[in-house]
Specification:
16 strands; four-stranded antiparallel sheet; Nucleotidyltransferase, domain 5; five-stranded mixed sheet; alpha+beta; disordered C terminus; 400 residues; single chain; binds zinc ion; 3 domains; 60s Ribosomal Protein L30, Chain: A
């Protein structure tokens, strides 16, 4: 299973100039047999060899590439056991002894890239689209907790409290009934409080993007009421029809529908929030260039990415600012630049190293006029001064 820590490690990996092969393979058992995905892998390997030869890679580079591709082929054919995995993401740089293999519970599009860096965009898109969700189930005696990560479910530590059953109406306890009832109510309340504390610990540990509640109708409203504000903010809905003995797979199917619905609502809210605070001196930016500038200042709290856009651009060799259009750096006026194949991908990588949250959104981004990137900021950006190249270099010595 892949974590944000792994992705950050990939982004920060320095291959010291050696090529890194990044390969994504769809191994989804519902559409492909092992023979079929081995065939697709073979085609990917052939195509990348041809492509690198056409680009004029020298003998050493071709040998390094062959070693990486041989290791990938060996891994998929001999070591990888599909079980219920649906995707594979492999990163290899044999030259530097670097190898990472991630089994994914979600299908990915087949792709291979050879570059001096790991190609992480598909991985980040997958992680940010599905995110991490938690399901909390509570009834009169038990509480169960599940973590849904990248489309697979794990049951976490739950709890069981010894709460007696309610007295029946007209029982022989007579006047004592109401006292017993009161005591049972109090025990249920303590049990629910116990469940809330348990959930809070899991949330602190797993940091889910959202929580889905489930449970018996007599206890669920109380559970909701007792949640702290921090927990309540993460609740996106309820999954109904689950029993205390539900299997994790049943919990998964029930919760997935709520997760999908909440994802599109969350995207819409994120964009609305940015729009509300956008504008000069504001805490939101809605264009690619303004977002690249915000990343340059380390101001991005949440990066919003249109998954369909790729955009070539430049990186200033003097200050490092990325930009998509123009012939000189908008920050310092430097005209020497490095070409950037895809500023959107580079922006995603930069955001990861800055610990920003990342949200890939679907086609609805077009409707609000976003041209690839947008962001919610930690602090407003300094006003952009129209850059005027100085007539001569300032004399630094005279200022000392
Ligand atoms: Zn610059």
């Amino acid at each position: 299973m892949v974590t944000w820590h792994d992705v950050r490690e990939l982004v920060e990996y320095d291959s010291k100039g050696s090529p890194v092969v990044s390969l994504y393979l769809n191994v989804d058992g519902s559409i492909r047999s092992p023979i079929k995905y081995a065939e697709v892998l073979h085609q990917l390997v052939r195509s990348v060899r041809t492509e690198q030869a056409a680009l004029g890679a020298d003998e050493t580079a071709c040998a390094a590439l062959d070693a990486d591709l041989a290791e990938i082929t060996r891994f998929v054919g001999a070591e990888f056991n599909r079980e219920s995995w649906r995707g594979l993401a492999l990163f290899s740089c044999r030259d530097q002894g670097f190898w990472r293999a991630f089994r994914l519970p979600h299908a990915v599009a087949d792709t291979v890239q050879v570059c001096h860096r790991a190609y992480v965009r598909p991985l980040v898109e997958l992680m940010s689209t599905l995110g991490r969700s938690m399901v909390a189930f509570v009834d009169r005696r038990a509480a169960r907790f599940f973590c849904i990560d990248l489309g697979s479910i794990t049951e976490l530590e739950g709890l069981q409290d010894d709460v007696p059953g309610r007295v029946r109406v007209g029982s022989t306890y007579g006047v004592a009934d109401s006292k017993i009832e009161h005591s049972i109510d109090e025990q249920i309340r303590r049990h629910v409080q116990h469940a809330v504390e348990h959930l809070d610990r899991h949330v602190t540990h797993y940091q889910p993007d959202r929580i889905i509640l489930a449970g018996s109708p007599d206890v669920l409203p109380q559970f909701r009421r007792l949640l702290t504000n921090g927990l309540a903010r993460l609740v996106v809905g309820e999954a109904h029809g689950l029993m205390a003995i539900a299997k994790p797979d049943d919990v998964f199917s029930e919760a997935m529908e709520t997760i999908r619905r909440s994802r599109s609502a969350e995207d819409a809210t994120a964009i609305r929030r940015i729009r509300e605070v956008a504008g000069p001196g504001g805490l939101g930016v809605l264009s690619t260039d303004a977002t690249l500038r915000a990343l340059f200042f380390g101001a991005v709290y949440e990066l919003v990415v249109d998954g369909a856009v790729t955009l070539t651009g430049h990186r200033c060799v003097s200050c490092g600012r990325m930009y998509a259009e123009g012939c000189a750096c908008p920050e310092c006026g430097e005209s020497r630049v490095e070409a950037v194949d895809d500023v959107i991908e580079s922006a995603v990588e930069l955001a990861i190293t800055q610990d920003a949250r990342i949200r890939f959104i679907g086609p609805e981004s077009e409707r609000i006029g976003m041209d690839g990137l947008g962001a919610l900021l930690h602090f407003p950006l300094p006003q952009a001064a129209a850059y005027v190249r100085p007539a001569r270099e300032p004399d630094m010595g005279s200022q000392r």
